[in-house]
Amino acid sequence: MTIGLSFLLGLVAGSVSFYMLGLWWPVALLVGLVAWLAFGLFDVKMDSAFTLMAGALLIFCVSLSGMIMRADSQLSGLQYAETVLEDGTQARYPIPLLGNARYGEEVYRSIGCAECHTQQVTHDGVEFDIKALATEKNLPAVKDAIDRYHRVTGSPASGGAAHGLPAGEWETVAHGANAADAAKARGFLSAAGASVDVQVRFHGEDLEKDEFINPDGRGWGKRRSVARDYLFAEKPMLGSVRIGPDLANVGTRHSRATLLRILLNPQLIRKGSKMPQHRFLFEEVDEGEANTITVLKGEKNIYYKPTKDADALVDYLLSLKGAQYPLEEAPVYQPFTSSLPVPAAPAEEEADGKEGGEASAESAN
Ligand code: HEC
Questions:
Q1: Can you tell me which atom of ligand 1 is nearest the CA of 281?
Q2: Which residue of 86, 288, 340, 360 has the smallest Cβ count within 10 Å?
Q3: pLDDT band at 349 (very low <50, low <70, confident <90, very high)
Q4: What's the CA-to-centroid distance between 275 and ligand 1, angstroms?
Q5: Domains in the chain, start-ordered, CATH in brackets?
Q6: Rounded percentage of the chain residues whose pLDDT exceeds 70
Q7: pTM for the whole thing?
Q8: Side-chain-facing half-sphere of 125: CA atoms under 13 Å
Q9: Is it true that the peptide bond before 326 is cis, omega within 30 degrees of 0?
Q10: 80: CA distance to ligand 1 center in Å?
Q11: Which SS3 state, helix, strand or coil, does residue 226 take?
């Protein structure tokens, strides 16, 4: 085989290993080199059963390690994350199911709620807005960095934003950038000495409704679901058909009383609801017992008391509130930190903005 043709084959092997199998680049380079040498120098020809079998075995091993073992090690290495909720409370996420809720998960599974309900919030995309703050001293360098950002990303230079940049004031530099461009902007600007603040905006019909950012939102979660959400689900019940709303975050939407009524008779909560009744989860009891729901049937009142299963099921539903915990791989909407009213000295404010910006841009990568 000519050296040119064998080089092309080596290039194909290397590219396939890198781009399609996702191998680490030195390994992909090695695969490419070995293929080039094998075809070129050692004159391997695909003309015997032995070379064909060896080739097939090699491809099998490479794809097994790249697509299955790598994914497996990524997922099995998942751990708790330390996170901070919007109200400032710190939490370890995910939270294991406790007591009754664990049994409730079994009830959810056995009744088949997953036939009509998913537990998987999706999102369509994420956008970044970037603000920068320059001082008198680094102003020229920062202006240069903004120019360079617009040149490199080919984004319109928004009416000479770079040249109107005032010193000592936060100014929006990029609007609606993708993750790669946002990372570039952050890199250029921090290298020039500017303070950087990044706003992360999500859109997707499952997410919280927001008139400006996400007008079509259904309010099923603050962020998309990720693998870490299911760390403690014995067998995640993602569901595949959405006849009813997604339940990944249902614990934040309804109270215990409402959830019990939805199970007993959804029409009590919403007229014309298409959810079936689950009356078998309740028993009729006499007047005067605690923890009952009273429903007027014909002429008389009936008292329904939730069974142990119903109580556990509701405990489980109330525990489903994961889609509000910000994670590194799935942050929730972050406004500009520099425009939040912080009662802090200006110098600290600046540092805050920078930190926030770096954290959010990294997490989106
Ligand atoms: C045959 C399909 C079906 C099954 C099975 C089903 N649901 Fe529903 N569910 C629905 C529909 C449809 C709605 C929306 C009702 C409406 O229009 O208000 C709903 C609504 C709900 C809601 C209110 C959600 C919200 O965001 O307001 C909860 C909670 C709920 N279901 C829980 C359950 C549980 C728990 C089970 C298993 C015991 C279950 N569902 C089984 C179809 C189903």
A1: 38
A2: 288
A3: very low
A4: 5
A5: 3-76 (no CATH), 99-118+242-324 (1.10.760.10), 125-215+326-364 (3.30.1390.10)
A6: 90
A7: 0.74
A8: 7
A9: no
A10: 30
A11: coil
